[in-house]
Q: What sequence folds into this?
């Protein structure tokens, strides 16, 4: 398996020479920084919007390997990034656990909220991997179909972020219900987090067995928590997931993305057990180079709105990131996902600019 | 004027002995940390909701000194905090500049957006201080009516945050239009920021002349920007405002609140020229004590959702903040405003807990 490249007993293999992302995450020197972009597959691509029209139901889209494979491959054909990330959604886990979930146009996900520990009885782990098996099939097919130099990233939402959707019943600005449960009944809330930790380990384990070479944990709402709560519900769950996956798959590279972690980012990097950290757009580059890059690979962090702006402003911002982080372990990416009205030509210009650094 | 207490030529006055907030901001030792709470006046108080029903128009409410004075005083009567903050809104400045503004129930503020430098011609500084004169009258009356030991805080939105509302036409999750203007036409966007800097200086100068003893600049959306943009559009405008106000009013204490500044908070503190920094709830306490408190007074940072939870969890969180920050220059506050469904009894319990530390 390709992640075995970090086994020190093995010489650099052909795989490492082909796949810049894996080489970088293993600490090898590459000809230029690898790049991929969060939400590179999705609504900014006209061919995605056409594909998406084939079913009205977003969950059905995620659970149909033909569609999910095609969605994953579309940006690879256009931009030839150094990695593709499985097309799926962080809320497939609550769906598999039996929490009713729907995606309403213009509103995003809507779930029947679980507001306290009593509500956990509505969830069941029975049969979740049969439910999620189309995702594993998608990974298997992608591993076979991707170009030789493109790494395959599996992913899941980190437990805190998934929990916010489960408790709020959807997206939220202040995560009021989730915080009130967590602050008021921390032991009860731990039970939800523990369940998500265990299920996420199994989910990512199966993605790796199916062919994912790297996994990323998205903690989109990590920036909502005070420090003690951040340690308990963001760092610790990621540490447990990363530890379990590395036990089963020694050398598997794991990328953490505690978006908005701000002043707690160093603590995350020191304790979460990840190989790389994805930086949101607010993280100062010189600080990241000085403090984080000696500890882990860093990934990021162009502002997605700068990609939407394009032109010379975007080119200057790309060059600045490359200049400040390109000297160490570095994966070029955005600080958050591509926004839907981003012109694909801007993404193509970004890809060309990074490739010319080779 | 009471802010003259920090003039080294003057001995500690009775005022400093009476007003814990001013003493703390001047670096004096006090019997216990002063406290006040962002949005202590407002919807969580039943008496505010009754007062608010007297007019359907929120702008009219802000521009009616009888109502604004009463709204400011209500939490002082209930909780007797160490400071009252003028009841007003950060969008009075765009309103005074002639940008049509309305507050829609459940939607918050709605403005006719200005999306580029051409739109600036729709703004005019003519007569803005006549327009804002009810605010100054409110400050004058508050200065006369507040208890002797309660300091009066004036405030304004910081230019970046006010600009986001002016450009987006209201609240926004990703500030897409504002960032695209700023990133794509930084010199044109500077003109909007420069206008806001100049007008904010005049606005706060008049608040101080009317009796405000401290001013706070709220940069609610500071956490949206990459580092270079944060320096240009968050730090630099605050530095210019603080510098101009201190020129006119030597010793005036100024509190900055760059919410979400995260890893850039130290840079803010070193360069913005403020006397105190208000910390959002994510800022680690030990770090703030080590790095920030030697430089400025710190204010914060209980999570408003913890105040909504109340009870022993809140008490423990308050004690932790007091233990970690109470040894230095410190003003107890929340990390963001009180949320509307917070029980007033929880706020009273918070006030009692801090007062018993004396």
A:
């Amino acid at each position: 398996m390709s992640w075995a490249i970090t086994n020190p007993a093995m010489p650099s293999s052909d795989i490492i020479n082909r796949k810049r992302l894996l080489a970088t995450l293993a600490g090898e020197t590459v000809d230029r920084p690898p790049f991929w972009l969060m939400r590179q597959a999705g609504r900014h691509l006209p061919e995605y919007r056409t594909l998406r029209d084939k079913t009205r139901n977003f969950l059905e889209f995620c659970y149909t390997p033909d569609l999910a494979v095609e969605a994953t491959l579309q940006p690879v054909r256009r931009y030839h990034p150094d990695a593709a990330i499985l097309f799926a959604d962080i809320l497939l886990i609550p769906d598999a656990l039996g929490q009713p979930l729907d995606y309403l146009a213009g509103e995003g996900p809507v779930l029947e909220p679980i507001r306290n520990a009593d509500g956990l009885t509505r969830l069941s782990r029975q049969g979740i991997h049969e439910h999620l098996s189309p995702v594993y099939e998608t990974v298997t097919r992608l591993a076979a179909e991707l170009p030789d130099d493109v790494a395959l990233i599996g992913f899941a939402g980190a437990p805190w972020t998934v929990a916010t959707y489960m408790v709020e019943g959807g997206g939220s600005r202040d995560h009021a219900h989730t915080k009130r449960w967590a602050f008021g009944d921390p032991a009860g809330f731990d039970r939800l987090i523990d369940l998500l930790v265990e299920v996420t380990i199994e989910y990512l384990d199966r993605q790796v067995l199916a062919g994912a070479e790297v996994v990323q944990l998205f903690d989109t709402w990590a920036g909502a928590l005070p420090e003690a709560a951040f340690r308990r519900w963001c760092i610790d769950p990621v540490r447990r997931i990363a530890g379990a996956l590395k036990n089963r798959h020694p050398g598997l590279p794991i990328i953490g993305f505690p978006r908005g972690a701000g002043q707690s980012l160093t603590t995350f990097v020191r304790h979460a057990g990840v190989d790389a950290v994805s930086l949101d757009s607010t993280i100062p580059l010189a600080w990241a180079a000085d403090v984080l890059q000696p500890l882990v690979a860093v990934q990021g962090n162009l502002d997605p709105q700068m990609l939407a702006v394009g032109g010379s402003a975007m080119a200057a911002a790309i060059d600045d990131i490359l200049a400040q982080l390109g000297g160490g372990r570095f994966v070029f990416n955005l600080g958050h996902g591509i926004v839907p009205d981003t012109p694909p030509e801007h993404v193509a210009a970004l890809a060309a600019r990074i490739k010319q650094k080779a």
Q: What stands out?
A: Confidence is low (pLDDT under 50) at residues 1-12 of chain A. Chain A has one domain: 2-355. Residues 186-210 of chain A form the longest helix (25 residues). Chain A is about 50% helix and 10% strand.
